[in-house]
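Lecture 7 notes: from sequence to structure.

We start with a single chain of 282 residues. Read the sequence below before looking at the structure.
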Amino acid sequence: MSAGSGFAQESALGRQAGEGQNDKFSVSLDDGCQVEAVWYPTGTLCLSTQVGCAMGCPFCASGRNGLLRSLGVEELHHQLATARLRGHHIERITLSGIGEPLQALTTVEAFVASVELPVSVTTSGQPLTALKRFLMARHNGLMLSVHAGTAAVHRQLVPRGPDFEALWRLLAQQWPLLSRRRRRKIGINYLLLAGVNDTAEELAALTERLQGFPEITLHLLTWNPVEGQPWRSPGDATMAAVADGLRVQGLNVRLANRWRRQALGGCGTLVSQGQAARPGTA
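Now the structure, written as C-alpha cells:
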C-alpha cells in the first residue's frame, strides 16, 4: 500500500545531530502518518519499511501500537531524500527501522533495484517464503533477528515471528545454494537480555545451531532503554565475557558499536505515528 508521492514539504522533523551523534528524524507521509529514520555518523542510513510493526517484540518500541500499513518504494526514497536535505553523507542503507521488511517484500526489492547505494536488511524471517526468496536476491547483507537459542524463548521475544525450527531448517536447506561470498553477508542478531536469554543453556543451544553455519557473524546487541519497559542487558564486562566465551566455541562474534547503543536512534527506539487510524480501532 502506498500513500502516493505528494509528500508534505515540512518532513525533516527531529533533532539535528551534534558532532559524533546519531540524527534521528521524522518523515511525514501524505496520509498523515509519520515514520522515523536515523543517520549514523558511520555513513549508514537506517530506514523504516512499515508504519508500525506486527511482530510484537516486547522489548521494541517500534511495534508497540501494532501495524498500520507497509510503505511504498517512493516513501523509502522520501526518507533517503530527507536525510540528504539534512546534509548527511550516505554510504550505505540498512532497512532496519520500523517494520518487518519481508512483509513489504515488493517494496524492498523495488527499492534495492532503484537505489545506487548498497542496501542491507534486518528481519525476523517472517514470512519464511519471503526469506527464502530474499536469501537469493540482491542485497548487501541479511541480518536475522532471532534473539534466542530455543523455541520457547523465541516465542517470548518474537511472538509473531516465524516458527523457530522451520526457520533453521530453511536456512540449512538454502545454505548449500549460497556462494561463500553471499554466506558471509548473512548475520544473526541476538539482543542479550538479563535473566531471559543470557543463560548458559540458552547460549549453548544457540551455539549448537550455529555450528553448521561457519560463515555467519553473530551480532550481540545491547538493549536501548524504552520508557515503561523493564528489560535490561548485562553490563559491558559481562557482554564482553559472553562474546569471548562464544568465540572460544568457534563463532564469529561482534558487539554493538556505540552508534547503535545511543538513546537517540539506537536499535529498537524508532517509532511511528498514525496507528490510531487503523480500521476497527477508532
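Residues 73-85 form the longest helix (13 residues). Keep this in mind for problem set 3.
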